[in-house]
Amino acid sequence: MLEKEIRFNVTAALSEDLGGTLDASRDITAQLLPETERVVAHLITREAGVFCGQAFAQETFRQLGDDVKLTWHVKDGDAVSANQRLLTLTGPARAIMTGERTALNFIQTLSGVATVTQRYVERLAGTHCRLLDTRKTLPGLRLALKYAVTCGGGLNHRLGLYDAYLIKENHIFACGGIDKAISEARRLQPARTVEVEVESLNELEQALAAGADIIMLDNFSVQDMQSAVKLSAGRVKLEVSGDVTLETISEFAATGVDFISVGALTKHVQALDLSLRVAE
């Protein structure tokens, strides 16, 4: 699925630059360069982080004619340091100039997600708690960003609305209660995981009685998280959501919950600072 998505994402990105086509001659600035000019260029990172996006860069230059040789010095998931060389490109100057921004956009965005994910994961050390992403992603880049989360050491929550139930407040209200919502989910899709979001310990008890697989504790206090762990007594997986930051996640994890989900991983994306330099 990811390979297909990579082709789709790269085609869309190149089309934005090339007037709705994949015709590299539409890059009028690159046409200033002699057609036979060949160059060597190096991609470096200006800051430390976690690298991600190799396949997206490969696909970028493949779609531009596959005449550029990419020599990688890192792989997805590798920790990188400031001023480290990531990639060497050798080939036609026009193709390298045309594909440069598209390739860097993918790498810097995905590396940024992988980097911040690792920072959150590091704060879970010493607990059994695992970090989850959410569906709060940049439009059109769902699978790409979720892949980047895994490169940073996180886990993927459901990919979309089709692969698992997440019964939230409005669903519960419309169904007539937690027990009725879970019962209907079991009837319609018995093989699917059923997760229920609760906002109080009372709702937690209802979800436990109804047989939820996972219960999301929405904006619980630390004290209530601890109580939820005791009440569930290992009968169900518990996930914490809401008010999760690098400053709070360690305390939340220490309560004994199984998962913590963080929308900021893929919503508040800060790109890794990269630079492509043509060798003299």
TrEMBL record:
Reaction(s) this enzyme catalyzes, per UniProt: nicotinate beta-D-ribonucleotide + CO2 + diphosphate = quinolinate + 5-phospho-alpha-D-ribose 1-diphosphate + 2 H(+)
EC number: 2.4.2.19
Pathway assigned to this chain's UniProt record: Cofactor biosynthesis; NAD(+) biosynthesis; nicotinate D-ribonucleotide from quinolinate: step 1/1
Domain spans labelled Quinolinate phosphoribosyl transferase N-terminal: 27-111
One Pfam short name: QRPTase_N
Keyword Nucleotide-binding: no
Classification via SUPFAM superfamilies: Nicotinate/Quinolinate PRTase C-terminal domain-like, Nicotinate/Quinolinate PRTase N-terminal domain-like
Domain Quinolinate phosphoribosyl transferase C-terminal: 113-277
GO CC terms: cytoplasm
UniProt entry tagged with the keyword Glycosyltransferase: yes
Domain of life: Bacteria
GO biological process terms, semicolon-separated: NAD+ biosynthetic process; quinolinate catabolic process
InterPro entries given in the database record: Aldolase_TIM, NadC, NadC/ModD, Nicotinate_pribotase-like_C, Quinolinate_PRibosylTase_N_sf, Quinolinate_PRibosylTrfase_C, Quinolinate_PRibosylTrfase_N
Self-association and partners: Hexamer formed by 3 homodimers.
Function: Involved in the catabolism of quinolinic acid (QA).
Protein family: Belongs to the NadC/ModD family.
Protein name: Probable nicotinate-nucleotide pyrophosphorylase [carboxylating]
